[in-house]
Each structure stands twice: as structure tokens, then as C-alpha cells.
Design brief:
It is built from three helices and eight strands. It has about 210 residues and is an alpha+beta fold. The strands form two sheets. It has a six-stranded antiparallel β-sheet. A hairpin with a 2-residue loop joins β5 and β6. α1 runs parallel beside α2. The longest helix has 15 residues. It is globular.
């Protein structure tokens, strides 16, 4: 399966002289889902070089973390909100790599809520989590799905929070006052993201490479 993930992506990355690691998880999922994950990996491996993310419309917005783990720096492309295309995630997730650099660790799909009777989205055989309030001013209430393609998450490939991810101590708690509906997983269980309390947030405009 890892060979399926890596083939096209590593060829692309080698051509661009951008370093990349192998996919972070061996999933054991349905072959059709593995194929979709391979498409996502091939389409996003180039964003290990953050200027390519900027060229394709991704803008750094916020770093999210709490006691149970982090999501890292979110780079959003609002034109991809609503996409269920494995090759077109709405967000890229990064962590500090030192020396002013950032390392790609995951990708995320964002589906804005449209009406109270909206059906919960699914991708990769997974129910999206939410609904939840936006992570920055102007971002709509939405469902989202995280996929930790580039950094192993002990909590699972599709878990929201990664206990191996943190945000810098300098990140201001700008998200802590946000209110909104309780967030549930696909089984209808409430998770503890209610009101986004305890998150660290920061507006990343003006950071290097943006």
C-alpha cells in the first residue's frame, strides 16, 4: 500500500528537488480508499515546499493545539471549501521544522454547513466531524476531516488531534472565546472541542513565505 501512496508523488517531488517522506500510516483500509489516499498524497506532496502552497492559494491562518494534542499551522485555500475531491484539500497542516521552516504533516477537507438538514459529508470511508465554528474571522461553520498523511498520529490516521503535534508557546490564545455548536463525530458522540476553549490561535499573516 505504501508503494501505491508513494509512487507518483515521489516521482513528482524528485523532479522538483523537494524532499518528501513516505506516507505516515499503513492503513489496511479498503483498496478503493487506499487509492483515494494515494491520490491525495500525490497531489499534496509538493506542498512540503511551502512557497508552492502559497502559489496555489493556501494562506496561513492559525495554529491550533490543546492538552490532548495539536493540529498545527493551518494553511487554508477558501476556493476549495466544499471540495470532496481527494486531490483538492481545503487546508494543509504544518509544524515548525526549525530555522524558520515548516514541515508538512497533514491535510484537511472543509465542508461549509448549508442548512440544518444537511447530510454529514463522507470521504475516504469516514464521516466528517462537526459541525463546528470557523477557526478565524469569516470562516463559516463547517464539517471537517483531517488526514495525517505525513506525520503518524497515534490516535489514528483520521483523528482530529495529534498528540505529537504542538504550537509555539508564543501563539496567542485568540480562539479561546469562540462559541458554537458542540462538535460530534460520525457516531453522534460529542467531543470536547465545544466552544474551541483551550485552543491556541494566531494569525499568520506576514510570516516568512506568506
Amino acid at each position: 500500500m505504501i508503494a501505491r501512496f508513494a509512487g507518483a508523488a515521489l516521482t513528482l517531488v524528485a523532479a522538483l528537488a523537494v524532499p518528501a517522506s513516505a506516507p505516515a500510516h499503513a492503513t489496511g483500509l479498503d483498496p478503493a480508499v487506499e487509492q483515494q489516499l494515494g491520490e491525495a498524497y500525490a497531489a499534496t506532496a509538493r506542498y512540503g515546499y511551502t512557497p508552492f502552497a502559497a502559489e496555489d492559494g493556501y494562506r496561513a491562518r492559525v495554529c491550533l493545539a490543546r492538552a490532548q494534542g495539536g493540529m498545527g499551522f493551518h494553511y487554508f485555500n477558501e476556493s476549495r471549501f466544499g471540495s470532496l475531491d481527494p486531490k483538492r484539500p481545503a487546508a494543509l497542516l504544518y509544524e515548525d521544522a526549525g530555522h524558520g521552516e515548516r514541515r508538512l504533516i497533514g491535510v484537511e477537507w472543509v465542508i461549509p454547513v448549508k442548512g440544518k438538514d444537511m447530510k454529514r459529508p463522507r470521504l475516504f470511508g469516514q464521516d466528517f466531524q462537526g459541525p463546528m465554528p470557523g477557526h478565524y474571522p469569516g470562516m463559516p461553520t463547517h464539517y471537517d476531516l483531517h488526514v495525517w498523511l505525513y506525520k503518524k498520529n497515534p490516535s489514528g490516521l483520521f483523528a482530529q488531534w495529534n498528540p505529537r503535534v504542538t504550537c509555539p508557546a508564543s501563539a496567542a490564545p485568540g480562539m479561546s472565546g469562540m462559541s458554537g455548536p458542540k462538535h460530534t463525530n460520525g457516531n453522534g458522540k460529542t467531543n470536547d472541542m465545544d466552544s474551541m476553549k483551550g485552543m491556541k490561535g494566531m494569525d499568520m499573516k506576514g510570516m516568512p513565505g506568506h
